[in-house]
Write the structure tokens for this entry.
Amino acid sequence: MNDAHCPGFDFPGHDKLVQALDAAVESGDQHAITSALRKTLCGLICDHDVRLPDCVHEPIVDHYARRELYRSPRHGYSVVAMTWGPGQGTPVHDHSGLWCVEGVWDGQLEITQYELLERDGERFRFRAAGGMQAGPGSAGSLIPPHEYHSIRNASPDTVAISLHIYKAPMECCSMFLPQDGEWYARAPKALAIDEAA
């Protein structure tokens, strides 16, 4: 982990957050782990002892920000804070086969899940399979192969912050770009870590 990505790495409650996440990832198989992490993350978001670094509250004008706050040397998981400026979001994407637990720390996010119906080479047919408005203290999980989704901050004037715990550092994913009807074209995407503004 390169602490230069977020100068406030030693944020209040850092050790409490790490201890809680470590305990959750020792729960068993991926279903038990993600269930424990969802519950743990909901509790941490509401815990006034844990305050994310100041840099996490700073949006980046042309894209949502990804700032890695912690990478577990023992368990391998990665904790990434994402900052969503007004109107910022993702296309439909996957998580490269990694489980993930995502929680809304501040603001509101629209999350839409997609069901893969069919594949033809690099073309994929998806159908929206449910959506939700997620506010502070809410958390959900993605376990492959049910990992296709999009996230968006629909607010015209408010920043949203979410915390994501990945099985391992997620350095790339596949985006799915709309073509015709329910068909999407897959495009690989490298995922960078943003430094503090």
Q: What stands out?
A: Residues 3-190 form a domain with the Jelly Rolls fold (CATH 2.60.120.10).
